[in-house]
Design brief:
Length: 113
């Protein structure tokens, strides 16, 4: 059974950093692209960052220069390093196995003073 397990969310102040992790099991992780999405209250889920199986990355404009997506194929883990966090980054963050119906359970990120 394919499973994605996220961790690393929390409550931080504006300007601080967090690193999210998403560990996959039940798949050959290295052949899949991985995405991070987020969903704020009352808003649609949006794509935040994507990393291909070959390590090519893409970001939504609002996080460019602040967020970094990376992957470690040895540990089957994708990361989202989030720096200079803003209140508008507050959301539930989900990892997604690109091209499938497999999502993580979500982790809450709250940015507030």
């Amino acid at each position: 059974q394919v499973q994605l397990v996220e961790s690393g969310g929390g409550l931080v102040q504006p300007g601080e950093s967090l690193r999210l992790s998403c560990t996959a099991s039940g798949i050959i992780f290295s052949i899949y692209g991985m995405d991070w999405y987020r969903q704020a209250p009352g808003k649609q889920r949006e794509l935040v960052a994507r990393i291909s199986s070959g390590g090519i990355t893409n970001y939504t404009n609002s996080v460019k220069g602040r967020f970094t997506i990376s992957r470690d194929n040895l540990s089957n883990t994708v990361y989202l390093q989030m720096n200079s966090l803003k209140p508008e980054d507050t959301a539930v963050y989900y990892c997604y196995l690109h091209g499938t119906a497999v999502w993580g359970q979500g982790t809450q990120v709250t940015v507030s003073s």
